[in-house]
Amino acid sequence: MAKGTKERILAAALDLFSQNGYAGTNIRELTASLGMVKSSMYKHFESKEAIWNSLLDESIAYYGAHFGSPEQLPPVPESLEELHAMTMQLVNFTVHDEKVVKVRKLLTIEQFRDGRARELATKHFLTGLEGMFAPVFAGMMDKGLLRPDDPAMLAFAYTAPISALIHLCDREPEKTDAAMAQIEAFVEHFIRTYGTDRKREGSSR
To answer: How far apart are CA 189 and CA 161, in angstroms?
Structure first.
């Protein structure tokens, strides 16, 4: 399906903002990249600030729908294998989805200029991940899949290294394969450390 004009403007704005920052992008460059004149763009957005806020709104909705959030939680895994698969699916998405990568770069650039960008960076890079995995881990503890612990602290310990390696992929794309392998090795280590093997326990009785 062909993109509408507003969608095209927002996609072009994301391209330019994620490369040059908000201040480093002007309306003339944006409209030129679309083959438009400024007056045509102003029929859809009254200002660059309006484009910026619409872009953030769209990004929040896209990320929540495709990745999840504390408000849109993933299901609690039924096994440790499901935790491994769910984690790697989320990591693969966030590392390789072109739109998410651009939004992450945009937030990294703009978090020191714009209040909304700062709040979103904190949520997407830290608190939102903890808020997603804490209830997941609590549910897995209730099912006897993880040994009892503080789910919030466990979520922090789980997500912080993964988030750091995702940012490494953004900074140095040539290291993406190595970073992905390290993330998977970490997930397996976490499962060995905190997981319970109910089948093995049952068979040993």
So the answer is: 12
In a domain, 205, yes or no: no
Same domain for 132 and 32: no
Domain range for 138 = 67-197
Q: Is residue 175 part of a domain?
A: yes
The encoded tokens of residue 185 equal: 């090795």
Global pTM? 0.85
In-domain check, residue 202 = no
Please, what sign has the CA dihedral across residues 32, 37, 38, 44? Answer: negative
Q: What is the pLDDT of residues 75-105, one digit of tens each?
A: 899 999 999 999 999 999 999 999 999 999 9
Q: Checking phi first, is residue 144 left (phi over 0); if not, alpha (psi -120 to 50) or beta? A: left
* Helices then strands, each counted (H, E), the chain: 11, 0
How large is the greatest C-alpha to C-alpha distance in the chain, in angstroms? 77
- Read off the tokens for 155: 């979520």
